Amino acid sequence: MLRNRHFIFLWSVNLTTTMAIELFTVTILVAIFQQTDSTLQAAGTMVFRSLPAFLLGPAAGVFTDRFPRKNVIIIMDMIRLVLIGIAFWFLQGNGEVPVTGIYLILTGLAAADVFHHPARLALIPSLVSRRQLVSANSFILVSCQVAMAISYTAGGWLILIAPLRHIALGVAVLFIISILSALFINVSERQDKEDGDKKESFRHALVSGWNYLRRHPIARPLTVMETIEHLPHGIWTGALMLAFTLKALQGDASDWGYQVTGYFAGMILGSVGALAVSDWLGHYPGHIIAVNACATGLLTLAYASSQAVWIAVAWAFVFGPPNAVRDVAQDALLQGTVEKGQLGRVYATREMLRNAMLMFAGVFFAWLSDFVSIRTIYVTGGVIYLMTGFYAMSNKALRESNMGDSIREH
């Protein structure tokens, strides 16, 4: 797989775009908080980043399936490069952040990612063989987790020593590297025709995508499970985790940072582990997904019972490996069982539903925290996770899915 230069170019696209988006978002969030001293305005960066996936998801899926995915990646990165150029212009002057303007920039960047992200994921089966899907997804996941960890660490450091304009310039360079990497990806003409869906009208393609997902024996329950899971995912937003650290653990903001770092470290370890057990993952993806959903519920209940910061950090680290292994199994299972002409729509619809639920959950649990204890909220989240795990266990098609039986040779 590592000798496949076209996959390596796609890996470079994933790495550089992840680092660019996360670095820009983290530094903007910190800058807005420092300037306004408003947690609400700082949290607005995440709201504006999540909204486009909810609004554009289905249309993005059709677009991704109708046109060569390499071209979609390049066009969206070029749009994001222009947006960063506009941000560079916004940030000139006295160093103050124009909050409304930056919100719009973040919305534009996220809107481009609604098209970019499913195109990247849907392109993987066109570049690697069926036996390499698990390894390919593991390799990309570990790289993206490293990029995110670096971005959070570097962003917090850079905002203290460098003007935002200079950081924006560095983000622009990362997008340029991504565009150049994508240009060197080569997908055969036959593969482009197989991936593309150019004969259907837009409306028919949109409807057929929904119908395909609704009837698919694996993609449907997997999407339902993930959508429901994003309700308890709302307890892991920065504001609620910080509230748990302050109120339940009597810690401070740095202690919250230790927990985030611990989780990233666990995800990286889990991604590397997924590479080592890729054959096993390929044989039992359904069982792994179901068991890990239940494990997430138990780990959440354990985290909720933490009495000290170091215990919470340890639990945050333990979350990482099973979540990473499960993420790899889910992506590989979708790539292996969904028709490639429908894969972009399935990924985009999944993102739309997940983001809609996450936005609702974040607001709901933040509101609920004014009436019940923060520990109760985390216990509630753990119970909901367990319910999704039981749902996965009860669905035979998902539970017994096997990569070797379902993946077609490309």
Structure description:
- By secondary structure, the chain is an all-alpha fold.
- The chain folds into two domains: about 1-185, Growth Hormone, Chain: A, CATH 1.20.1250; about 215-405, MFS general substrate transporter like domains (Growth Hormone, Chain: A), CATH 1.20.1250.
- It has helices at about 5-35, 40-65, 70-90, 100-125, 135-160, 165-185, 190-195, 200-215, 220-230, 240-250, 255-275, 280-285, 285-305, 310-335, 340-370, 375-395, 395-400, 405.
- Helix 1 packs parallel to helix 5 (about 135-160).
- The protein is globular and about 50 Å long.
Q: How would you summarize what this structure contains?
A:
The chain has two domains: 1-185, MFS general substrate transporter like domains (Growth Hormone, Chain: A); 216-404, MFS general substrate transporter like domains (Growth Hormone, Chain: A, Up-down Bundle), CATH 1.20.1250. 83% of the residues lie in helices and 0% in strands. It has helices at 5-36, 39-66, 69-90, 99-127, 133-161, 164-183, 189-195, 202-215, 219-229, 238-248, 253-276, 278-283, 285-304, 309-337, 340-368, 374-394, 396-399, 403-406.
